[in-house]
Amino acid sequence: MAMADHTITTTHGCSEEKLSSGVQHTSNDHTITTTNGCSEEKLSNGVQQTSNDHTTTTANGCLTEKWSGGVHLVLNCPVEAAWAIQSDFLGLTKWVPTVSVCECVEGENNILGCLRYCKGTGTTWVFERLLEFDNAHKYMSYRMEKNHFVFRDGFQGYVSKVKLSGVDEGTKTHVDWTYEVEPVATQTHKQLTEFMIQFYTMNLKYLETAAQKATTLTAPVADDPLESHV
Prior knowledge:
Layout: E1 6-9, E2 15-18, E3 24-26, E4 31-35, E5 38-42, E6 48-52, E7 54-57, E8 63-75, H1 79-86, E9 101-106, E10 115-119, E11 125-134, E12 139-148, E13 159-167, E14 172-181, H2 189-218
Antiparallel strand pairs: 1-2, 3-4, 4-5, 5-6, 6-8, 7-8, 8-14, 9-10, 10-11, 11-12, 12-13, 13-14
Helix pairs in contact: 1-2
């Protein structure tokens, strides 16, 4: 991707990377068009991904670059079933096979401030704190705190937001799952974006499967037509 990047120095001696806007990048299966640093990506597998490079101000007044993105897709399962599973902050082991431990370290489940510890595959482990929870609007956000998530140095400044909404009268589920994170030293922005698309899509497939199974188990049993003729 061709970019005219430059750096400015703030009055606090910190630097801020600025990305050029209006950049278009085309690959074999998708096109990214950025406007004022934002981009929306349509992938060949039907998953829509958005990203946005921006800066945030820290407590000491320095500007820190953030990488952000997410996936936006429709699951073939009822939204109520999907939310019942997704909204259980301490329930990851019930539907994500790659998570072996998900337990409360501080607070209470689904109450703001709840801190969970999750153990994944290999050496991956994370502590995540619930920041927002809106059951009526099917929305939640959480922050990854101390962690050893996949990469050598884990994630710094990672915040994730998940929003579910009904499609086709609630028989399907539209998911907006977005994130922001500080740049990862061992990854380029493109590498991290591709990883997050795969990671989020895989987990939403797990969610879809779990919600379909739950719907099947709770569906009313039809009367046996042969019994009416006995």
